[in-house]
Amino acid sequence: MDSQLAQEKLAAAKQTYGREIRVFETTTSSQTSNDPTNDEELPDEFYEFTAEDYYRILATKKEDKYLKTKKIRQAEEAARRSRMTKAVIRVRFPDNHTLEATFHPSETMQSLVDLLMRVVAQPDLPFYIYTTPPKKQITDMSQDFYSAGFAPGAIVYFSYDQSRGDGGVAASSPFLKEEVLSLKGLELIAEQEKPEVNQGAAEPTAAATAPPPVQERKPAADKKMTKPKWLKM
């Protein structure tokens, strides 16, 4: 598939679903043990607390040490919010596929759920989304992405709710619709077509860039030695 066709398919998907979406396959190492056929809930200890999480919390605590008036805090919060124009949400599925969608930070969690209802292969089965670590199910669908800390981006996880379902989900069944899975890897193909480097401006020649030659100073010609008149031999 050429880059032009890939761009056309991505544009068609944007028109169909009302937003930019991407699909790619994550590595096996990033897959969780959240098997859709397993009714057991994983303990919170399963999710590792990374160094990145630690430093993010530490930086937040340092900011709290500075005393600011309520009006200043509100002004700074409004300024930060106005600078963010999009929230890129990645939804990871148990079959190692990830759906990436772009939202506005003022949109709510319900908009993400509405999108999932349109792209999953079995929308009639109850499901939920959650974040880690620790594992926390997202229940407030009226919260906007910015207030939830999902802007400029976040990763959430998808799982079928087996406790509310009326049957198991086949492990081999895809989580996303076939037409959505067909978008996998198209963003890489679309990026292959890059503008060529302008070769019109030739590199300066060595003669043009070389400094002007330094003229060698020649010593003055030796004068003929003559005896002074007062010197008598």
UniProtKB/TrEMBL annotation:
Entry's PROSITE patterns? UBX
Q: Gene3D superfamilies in the record, alphabetically?
A: Phosphatidylinositol 3-kinase Catalytic Subunit, Chain A, domain 1
Q: Does the keyword Ligase apply?
A: no
Residue ranges for the region (Disordered) are 24-43, 194-233
Keyword annotations for this protein?
Answer: Ubl conjugation pathway
Q: Which domain of life is it from?
A: Eukaryota
Molecular-function annotations in GO: ATPase binding
Query: Spans of biased composition, class Basic and acidic residues?
Result: 215-225
Pfam families documented for this protein: UBX
UBX domain: which residues?
Answer: 82-158
- Which GO terms fall under biological process for this protein? protein-containing complex disassembly
Q: Where is the composition biased (Polar residues)?
A: 25-36
> What name does the UniProt record give this protein?
Plant UBX domain-containing protein 1
